[in-house]
Design a protein that fits this description.
The complex is a heterodimer of chains A (about 280) and B (about 90).
Chain A lengths: L2 H22 L4 H11 L4 H26 L4 H21 L5 H18 L15 H6 L4 E5 L2 E5 L4 H18 L4 H11 L4 H25 L5 H21 L5 H25 L3
Antiparallel strand pairs in A: 1-2
Helix pairs in contact in A: 1-2, 1-3, 1-9, 1-10, 2-3, 3-9, 3-10, 4-7, 4-9, 5-11, 7-8, 8-9
Chain B lengths: L8 H34 L19 H9 L3 H16 L1
The chains are: A mainly alpha (about 280), B mainly alpha (about 90).
Chain lengths: ~280, ~90
């Protein structure tokens, strides 16, 4: 296959990856990595480099729209990003010294369980008695997001738990070269109990920063190839720009279903990859 | 402070949105121009990514990338765009 054909295939796949990534708060690596490794026979290390580029591009294409429309919880995102970035730097440094294959299998199993969890949606609104809400109130994390009938208020729960899980998400991102959008969405959705669209869009804002942190390390290792990254970046950027415009009009149940399916696909990839020991 | 709007959350959101958009646009234009150049020069070569060699050292750091851009090398220009994109994202 010549470079032109490879570029065309990657561009098409990346359009889809960006579209799905923008809507679900995931980075698009779940689409990019198998296309590169299974369909095009690219070495996994180049695929990881391209996947990090796709995460940065997904975030770049969608974040501006979500921030402007008021979906993204910037305060929560920035606070949690501290944990994720520190984790990502630690993880990327540790990657050479720990058995990443074992971690992949464990992470895959955790994701399968999370996919099951995310299918039992919690109550997103309404009054509830939460003793740990003090921290969220002091940091002014509670906010509103756009709904068909106008701005809808929500509260943020369990800030400390969410912060801890974000640190883990960062470590995994650095270790495995993934955007870790899955864990971010799950932490905000399940632990901090944010509305689903706020979780996915805030994840979208965050994954770019996390991926940039681990991306620098992988760039220095020579994983980021411009010939692969170019169609991935441009395709994902276009796809995620389109996806971001559709979010406001998309039914939450459909979003949850697509998210769940992508998580399962990601989990299976992780487990198979880990067992084959292809890294 | 007469006539100056205070920096409330909404204004921060608006400014961050605009900054993100501008940075991304610049990065995309750089990647695209490097990409066109790259495809024009190397489009008919066969793609060889089956075996991992790692990128050459000039594409692994900022100074090497800038050096490549200065010399009009397509892969360096793409890499510069990627660096800009990660700056805009972060």
């Amino acid at each position: 296959m010549d470079v032109l054909a490879l570029t065309a295939v990657l561009l098409a796949a990346s359009l889809g990856a960006g579209f799905l990534g923008a809507l679900t708060g995931l980075g698009g690596g779940v689409v990019i990595i198998p296309v590169l490794t299974l369909a095009l026979g690219v070495d996994i290390r180049y695929a990881i480099g391209a996947s990090l580029v796709s995460v940065i591009a997904t975030s770049s294409g969608a974040a501006a729209t979500y921030v402007r429309e008021g979906f993204t919880n910037l305060r929560a995102g920035m606070l949690l990003e501290i944990a994720t970035t520190l984790g990502a730097l630690a993880g990327a440094t540790l990657a050479a010294h720990v058995p990443t294959r074992v971690i992949e299998v464990i992470f895959g199993l955790v994701l399968l369980y999370s996919a099951y969890l995310s299918h039992r949606p919690h109550v997103e609104h309404g009054a509830d008695s939460d003793r740990s809400a003090g921290l969220a109130a002091r940091l002014r994390l509670d906010s509103t997001y756009p709904a068909p009938e106008g701005a809808r208020a929500y509260r943020v729960h369990n800030v400390a738990g969410g912060f801890g899980l974000m640190g883990v998400a960062g470590i995994l991102s650095g270790l495995l070269g993934i955007g870790s959008g899955a864990l971010k969405v799950l932490a905000m959705d399940q632990v901090m109990r944010l509305p689903f669209k706020v979780s996915t869009t805030t994840s979208n804002f965050m994954i770019g920063v996390t991926a940039a942190a681990s991306g620098g390390v992988y760039l220095r290792r020579g994983y980021v190839d411009p010939g692969l990254a170019m169609p991935v970046m441009l395709g994902v950027l276009a796809g995620s720009t389109v996806g971001a415009r559709l979010l406001a009009h998309t039914d939450v149940r459909l979003l949850r279903l697509v998210f769940g399916l992508m998580i399962v696909a990601l989990a299976l990839q992780m487990i198979v990859n880990g067992l084959r020991g292809s890294i | 402070m007469d006539g100056v709007r205070p920096w409330g959350d909404e204004r921060v959101e608006e400014s961050i949105g605009k900054l993100l958009r501008a940075g991304v646009l610049v990065a995309a234009v750089v990647v695209m121009s490097g990409g066109v150049l790259y495809l024009a020069r190397h489009g008919r070569e066969s793609a060889a990514y089956h075996v991992f060699h790692g990128e050459p050292s000039d594409l692994r750091g900022v100074s090497g990338v800038l050096h490549d851009v200065w010399n009009g090398r397509a892969r360096g220009i793409i890499q510069l765009g990627l660096l800009l994109a990660s700056l805009a994202g972060a």
